[in-house]
Design goal:
Elements lengths: L5 E5 L2 E8 L3 H4 L1 H4 L1 H4 L6 E4 L6 E5 L5 E10 L3 E6 L13 E10 L2 E9 L4 H21 L16
Antiparallel strand pairs: 1-2, 2-8, 3-4, 4-5, 5-6, 6-7, 7-8
């Protein structure tokens, strides 16, 4: 049974936890390999999953997230800096930090996302909405499902 998504906006960060019916080994490539990432988020991606490697995702045709990988621990954790090339909601490329951890939970995995170093409440609210949208899609894609066309792909939210 899937657990409903939890979103917490605290201080200047957003945290999110979802339970996905797949192993950490199955989920990890969805965070580090462009072809798998595009199944749940984005329309184009350039990823070099090693510390200092590029993280660049066209989340939609108009919104491009850019940063670099900070830590890559296979099947356990990935973190990368994040920001928008159009400087949306005051989050410039590389100015915030996204950390995702994978914790085995029986035959499933608890995926915990923490997006920190956000500049203000507007940025927190915007990113909480975005992570809610995309992690719900990951919950479907990682176990082998099809989340369908992303309604945001054509132009953002």
């Amino acid at each position: 049974m899937e657990r409903s998504p939890d979103v917490l906006v605290e201080g200047l960060e957003v945290t999110r936890e979802v339970r996905i019916e797949a192993s950490p080994e199955t989920i990890f490539p969805f965070l580090t390999q462009a072809d798998e990432l595009l199944r749940w988020m984005g329309v184009e991606a350039e990823l070099d999953p090693q510390p200092g490697g590029v993280y660049r995702v066209h989340v939609s045709k108009d919104w491009v997230a850019r940063g670099e990988f900070v830590a890559v621990e296979p099947f356990v954790r990935v973190s990368f800096t994040w920001g928008w090339e159009n400087n949306a909601v005051g989050v410039t490329p590389g100015s915030s930090l996204v950390e995702v951890t994978l914790e085995p939970d029986g035959g499933a995995t608890l995926v915990r996302l923490r997006h920190s170093r956000l500049p203000d409440e507007e940025a927190c609210a915007s990113h909480a909405q975005g992570w809610e949208h995309f992690l719900t899609r990951l919950q479907i894609a990682a176990p082998g499902g099809d989340p369908g066309p992303d309604p945001w792909a054509a132009g953002g939210e």
